[in-house]
Amino acid sequence: MTPDSQILATLSAEVFDRLAPHLQPVSLEQGKVIYRPGDSISYLYFPIDSLFSVTITMKNGAVAEVGMAGSRDVVGIHACLGSREAAQTDVFVQVAGNAMKIEAQVMRQEFNRNDELRDVLLRYTQVFLAQVSQTAACNALHPLEQRLCRWLLEAQWQLNSSYLPLTQEFLSIMLGVRRPGVTQTAQSLQERSLIQYRRGSVHILNQTGLEASGCECFKTIKAQYQRLLAEQ
Predict the structure, then answer these.
(1) What pTM value is reported for the model?
(2) CB 67 within 8 A of CB 132
């Protein structure tokens, strides 16, 4: 077995071979709920060509995305960081695709006994905290167009694909804004030939132009992955 997850690919052959017998391939549908707050974390997930969304739901039902996870990530990492392995956020599949999953108990055992694995996962934890922090700052400080550009660029990078099967309604929920705002902003990007929007999908046509129209947040997030996970 060869690792398709970039986190797994970071590991030495010796460490990966210890995990490989326990890794289970799964196919995930869009919208599948992985965790709810308070759920026991039974499995950790390594996305391959799927994309996960980490969200917070308020008492009034309002939803805001605080992070995303793709092929450079592991979902459920906090199950390795203590004995209280309950989920703290909502996590669901935002783009359907494949992943590898592993029992949390097995991962905790390997995490506790293996220095290399522990180092990689702790560095990844720093990366994800940096992503969440940058996302919070972006959502609080930057106008909608820059936030939408950042989101699209990050999703493209995580999926390694310029084709994103997403609706404007979904994007409005992830960005915490009303749908008409996303519709107007997406139309502006399309008129400048940066994206092409069709019902249920977004196609990124000009990544460089999208970066120029966005803020610094995508590049900052990407740089943290490259620095802490030695990604080329």
Answers:
(1) 0.92
(2) yes
